[in-house]
Amino acid sequence: MLRSSALLLIALVACASPASAASDGAPFPPSRQTLTVDGIARSFAVRAPAAYDGRRAAPVVFAFHPFGMNAEYMATRVPLARSWRQAIVVYPNGSGQPQSWQTTTGERGDRDLHFFDAMLSWVREHACVDAHRVYAVGYSNGAGFAYLLACERAASIAGLGIASGRLECKPSQPAPIVINHGTADGTIPYDAALDAATTWAAVNGCKAPPPPVPEGCAVARSCSFAPVTLCTYAGGHEYNSSFTATAVDFLKGRR
Description:
The chain has helices at residues 2-13, 71-77, 80-83, 111-126, 141-152, 190-203, 243-252; strands at residues 31-37, 40-47, 58-64, 88-92, 129-139, 159-163, 177-182, 216-219, 228-233. The protein is of the alpha/beta class and 255 residues long. It has one domain (28-252): Rossmann fold. The radius of gyration is 18 Å and the shape is globular. It starts with a helix and ends with a helix.
C-alpha cells in the first residue's frame, strides 16, 4: 500500500516522457501564444523558469492585469517571474476595448473562464507542471477575475493573490488567499477587502476573519481548511509593489 502511494505521488509531481514536448527534457523558452476561444483570438505571454528542464514539475501562476491594461503591463508591474524563479508564469490579455475581464458568472458568455480553461490545457500540454500548484494573482479588475476562478474553477486553483480587487461571486469551496488593499483606495474602497476577507474566512472555516490593521498583514484565526491573510497599506488604488514578494511567499507552500 505504501509503495503504491509513493508511486502515485511520483506520478503526480514528476513528468514522464510521452511523445509530448512537455516532458522530453527540452527547454521551454519564454513565448507568446494565441489561442482561438469561442471564435475569438486570445493571447498570452509565458515566462518559464531559467532552470526549467522539462522533467521536474513546476508550479504555474496566472497573473491578470487591471482594466484597460495588458499582459506586458502586468509582467512589468507585477514581476512574479522575477520573484518566483521556479514557477512558470502566464500573463494573459483580457478582451474588448479597453481590455478587461469578466468578474461574474455568465458575463460575456463566460468567455474569460473558457480562455482560462484553454490556457491551462495549453500549459499542461507544453510544459511539465504540478497540477496541484496552479495559482491565480490579479490586480483590480484582474483580481475580480481571479476571485471568479476561485468560485468557478476551484478544483484548478490552489491559492489566490488579490491586489485591490472586489469579490463579486460566491465562493463555495475553501482556498488559501492573501488580499492586499489600500485604505485610501477611491476606486474600490478598502471595505471591499474587509468584506472579502470575512467571506473567505467563513468559507475556509476560520473562527474569526483577519482584523483590520493600519498597515501590514493580519491573519484569520484558527482556520480549519485554508488560511486567509489581509494586508493593508496607506495608499490608494495603485499597485503596492511590495505585495509581489508577499504573494509569492504566501503561495509557495500552498497546494
